[in-house]
Design a protein that fits this description.
The structure holds two protein chains of two kinds.
Chain A: H1 2-5, H2 23-33, E1 37-41, H3 45-57, E2 61-65, H4 68-78, E3 82-85, H5 94-103, E4 112-116, H6 123-129, E5 135-139, H7 145-155
Chain B: H1 2-236, E1 241-246, E2 251-254, H2 256-262, H3 266-269, H4 274-277, E3 280-281, E4 287-288, H5 290-300, E5 306-313, E6 319-331, E7 334-344, H6 346-381, H7 390-421, E8 429-432, H8 433-450, E9 465-468, H9 470-487
Antiparallel strand pairs in B: 1-2, 1-7, 3-4, 3-5, 5-6, 6-7, 8-9
Helix pairs in contact in B: 6-7, 8-9
Classes of the chains: A alpha/beta, B alpha+beta.
C-alpha cells in the first residue's frame, strides 16, 4: 500500500465504479503483473496528470514528483524503470536533477526521457545532454501522448 | 686448773675458729667476687679473642689481596719491561735506518749537484755551438750576397746605358708636342671667355625662377599642413576606436576613443607592433594575432574588410567584447597598412543574451498550455476515457487541429528568432526528396480532393539522395503545396 499512501495515484480519478479500477486494486494488479514503474518529474499539474492517466491506461505504474528535488529523492529511493524529466522547474531544474541521478550507481543505467518544451537556441546544450546513450530528448508540443508511450515501450523493450 | 685452761683454749680455738670462719667467709666472698671478675675478664678476653680472630682473618684476606696485586704489578712490570726492550730495539733499528737514509740522501745530493754542474756545462756548450753555427751561416750568406750584388750591378750598368738611349729619343719628340699644345691653348682661352659670359646670363635667370618657386612651395606647404592637421583632427575625433598600422603592423595613429577603450595612452602605443601592444582574445580566451589573420584576408582580396568579434582584457583583468573592423590601406595596388575600427559591443551582447533568454522562455511558456490542450484532446479523441458521439468528435477535432496550428506557429516564431540570433541550426542528412514530396502530398491529399483540384506529381526516376535538413525541407514543400491549395480559386 506504500504507493497509495504516498498519493502516487490520485484516488479521485481511480475508483471501482467507473471505467477504471480503484488504486488499491491497481496496486494489487501491478504486483501480480510486475508492471514497469515510470517516474514523472513535471511541475505542471495538468501535464503530469495527463501522463499519469495515459500510463495507467497503458498498464504502467507511475510515481509523480513536482520538481527536480523531489524527483531525485524518489528516483534514488524507488528505482523506477524509466524517468520522464521536465527541464524548467522550481526548486531544482531538470539538468541538475539529471546530473544528480546520473551520479548514482543505479541512476547511471536508468533510461531518462527529457520531456520538455524548451528548444530553439539551446541546441548545443541538448547535444551535451544526449552524450549519455540512455538519455532521450522529446519536445512536448511535438509529441502525441500515445507516441510518447510507444517510445517508452520501445526503450523498455516491451 | 687444767679444765680451766682447756676451756680457755677451746674458747680460744672457738674464737679463732669463728675468726677463721669469718675470714673464710670474707675470703670466700672475695673469691666469689674475684671469680666473677675472672669470669667477666674471661668473657671480655673471649670477645677480644673473637674480634682479634676477625681482624686476623681480614688481615689475611688483605694480605692475600696485596699479594695478588703485587703479583699483577710484577707481571705488568715484566710486560712493561718486555715492551720497553722491544721499543729500545725498534728505536735502535730506526736510528740505523735513519743513518742509512741520511747517507743515501747525502749521496743523492752529491750526485744531483754533479748532474746540475754537468747540465750547466752542457747548456753552455750548446749555446757556444749555436753561436758558432750562426756565425758560420751569416758568413755563408754574406758571401752569397756579395756574389749576387756583383752580378746585379753588371746588369744595371747595361740597363742604364740602354735607358739613356731611349730618353734621348723621347726628349726630341716632346719638344715637338709642346709646341702644338701651346697653339691649341690659345684657341681654348677665347672659347672659355664666351662660355663664361653665357653662364652668367643663365645664372641670373635661374636665381629668379628659384625665388618664385620657393615662394610657391612655402604657400603649398602651408595649405598641405592645414589639410593634414584637419584630417588628423577628424580621424582622432571619430567616435569609434581607431588604430592605423603600417605594412609591418606598427601602430602609427591611435585616436582618443581607442585610448579610452584600451586604457592606453597614444605615447605608449605609437611606434609599437599592434599585436604586441593590444592583446585580443577569442571566445575561448586564446590570444588572437590579428596581423596574421589580416595579412591572409588581404592577400585573398585586396579590398576585403573583415568584421569580427574579439575580447579585450582591461588592466583590471575584466574583459569586454568588441567588434573589430579591419580594412587594408592600399596605395598603387600595394597594401601599405591597415585601419582597424574597434567598438565596445557589451550592451549589444547583453541585449542578444536577453533576447535568447526571452525566446527560450517564451518557447517553454507558450508551448506548455498548448501541450496540455493537445494531450487531453488526443486522449478524448482516442477514446481513452470513453467513446464520444460524432458531433463531439468533430468539435474536438477542430480544437485539436487549431491547437496543432498554434504549435506550428510558435515553432515558426522560434525558428525566426533563431535565424535572427544566428542560432538557427541546420542538421543535414541524406534525404530522398522525391519520397519527402510524396509524403507531403499524401498528407494534403484530403484538402486537394475537397477543393477538387486536379493535381499530378511527377519526378525524374533517379533524383537520388541529397544532403538537406529533412525537417526544414519538409516545411518548405509543405508551405508551397498548402499555399497552392489555399489560393487556388474554387
Amino acid at each position: 500500500m506504500e504507493n497509495y499512501q504516498k498519493g502516487f495515484f490520485a484516488p479521485s480519478l481511480f475508483c471501482c465504479n467507473g471505467f477504471r479500477s480503484c488504486s488499491a486494486h491497481v496496486y494489487r494488479e501491478n504486483i501480480i503483473k510486475k508492471q514497469k514503474t515510470i517516474l514523472i518529474i513535471e511541475d505542471e499539474k495538468s501535464l503530469r496528470s495527463a501522463i499519469v492517466d495515459i500510463l495507467h491506461i497503458k498498464n504502467f505504474l507511475s510515481i509523480e514528483a513536482r520538481n527536480g528535488k523531489e524527483g531525485v529523492v524518489l528516483a534514488l529511493s524507488k528505482h523506477p524503470d524509466l524517468i520522464l524529466l521536465d527541464l524548467i522547474m522550481p526548486e531544482m531544474d531538470g539538468i541538475t536533477a539529471l546530473k544528480n541521478i546520473r551520479k548514482d550507481k543505479w541512476g547511471e543505467k536508468v533510461p531518462i526521457i527529457i520531456l520538455t518544451n524548451l528548444s530553439g537556441p539551446n541546441e548545443q546544450f541538448v547535444d551535451d545532454l544526449l552524450v549519455h546513450k540512455l538519455t532521450h530528448y522529446l519536445i512536448k508540443s511535438d509529441w502525441k501522448l500515445h507516441a510518447i508511450v510507444k517510445k517508452i515501450e520501445e526503450i523498455l523493450e516491451i | 686448773m687444767k679444765k680451766k685452761v682447756i676451756t680457755s683454749v677451746s674458747n680460744e680455738i672457738i674464737r679463732n675458729l669463728k675468726v677463721l670462719a669469718k675470714e673464710k667467709e670474707v675470703v670466700r666472698r672475695k673469691l666469689e667476687i674475684t671469680a666473677k671478675e675472672l669470669a667477666e675478664t674471661a668473657k671480655k678476653l673471649a670477645t677480644t679473642a673473637r674480634e682479634r680472630e676477625i681482624v686476623r682473618r681480614k688481615l689475611e684476606i688483605t694480605a692475600k689481596e696485596l699479594a695478588a696485586t703485587a703479583e699483577k704489578l710484577a707481571a705488568t712490570a715484566k710486560e712493561k719491561e718486555v715492551v720497553r726492550r722491544k721499543l729500545e730495539i725498534t728505536a735502535e733499528k730506526l736510528a740505523v735506518t735513519a743513518k742509512e737514509l741520511a747517507a743515501t740522501a747525502k749521496e743523492k745530493e752529491v750526485v744531483r749537484r754533479k748532474l746540475e754542474v754537468t747540465a750547466a756545462k752542457l747548456v753552455v756548450t750548446a749555446a757556444k755551438l749555436a753561436i758558432t753555427a750562426g756565425k758560420l751561416a751569416v758568413t755563408a750568406e754574406e758571401k752569397e750576397d756579395v756574389r749576387r750584388k756583383l752580378a746585379v750591378t753588371a746588369e744595371e750598368k747595361e740597363d742604364v746605358r740602354r735607358n739613356l738611349l731611349v730618353t734621348a729619343t723621347k726628349l726630341a719628340a716632346t719638344a715637338e708636342e709642346r709646341e702644338s699644345v701651346r697653339r691649341k691653348l690659345a684657341v681654348t682661352a677665347k672659347e672659355k671667355e664666351d662660355a663664361r659670359r653665357k653662364l652668367a646670363v643663365i645664372a641670373k635667370k635661374l636665381k629668379k625662377s628659384h625665388e618664385t618657386l620657393e615662394h610657391k612651395v612655402l604657400e603649398r606647404t602651408k595649405d598641405l599642413e592645414m589639410a593634414r592637421v584637419k584630417e588628423e583632427a577628424i580621424l582622432l575625433s571619430i567616435g569609434d576606436g581607431l588604430l592605423v598600422t603600417d605594412e609591418k603592423g606598427i601602430i602609427i595613429i591611435m585616436n582618443k576613443t581607442a585610448e579610452k577603450l584600451f586604457g592606453k595612452k597614444r605615447e605608449e602605443t605609437i611606434g609599437k607592433i599592434f599585436s604586441d601592444t593590444i592583446l585580443l582574445e577569442n571566445e575561448k580566451g586564446f590570444l588572437v594575432f590579428l596581423e596574421q589573420y589580416q595579412a591572409k584576408t588581404i592577400l585573398d582580396d585586396n579590398t576585403t574588410t573583415s568584421v569580427s568579434t574579439y575580447y579585450y582584457r582591461r588592466k583590471d583583468k575584466t574583459k569586454f567584447p568588441m567588434s573589430v573592423m579591419a580594412t587594408p590601406v592600399i596605395l598603387k595596388g600595394k597594401v601599405i597598412g591597415a585601419i582597424k575600427i574597434f567598438r565596445d559591443i557589451t550592451s549589444e551582447r547583453e541585449i542578444d543574451k536577453a533576447k535568447t533568454e526571452f525566446v527560450s522562455l517564451a518557447s517553454h511558456q507558450l508551448r506548455t498550455p498548448l501541450s496540455t490542450v493537445n494531450w487531453y484532446a488526443e486522449m478524448l479523441l482516442a477514446g481513452d476515457v470513453g467513446e464520444l458521439n460524432d458531433k463531439q468528435k468533430k468539435y474536438l477535432d477542430e480544437v485539436y487541429k487549431s491547437n496543432q496550428r498554434m504549435v506550428e506557429l510558435v515553432n515558426a516564431l522560434l525558428d525566426v528568432s533563431s535565424l535572427e540570433l544566428g542560432t538557427f541550426i541546420v542538421e543535414p542528412e541524406s534525404v530522398d526528396i522525391s519520397k519527402l514530396a510524396q509524403s507531403v502530398i499524401d498528407e494534403q491529399k484530403p484538402q486537394i480532393n475537397i477543393k477538387k483540384i486536379s493535381f499530378s506529381f511527377s519526378s525524374e526516376k533517379n533524383v537520388g539522395v541529397i544532403q538537406a535538413d529533412p525537417k526544414h525541407l519538409r516545411m518548405v514543400v509543405q508551405n508551397i503545396l498548402s499555399n497552392a491549395v489555399k489560393y487556388t480559386p474554387d
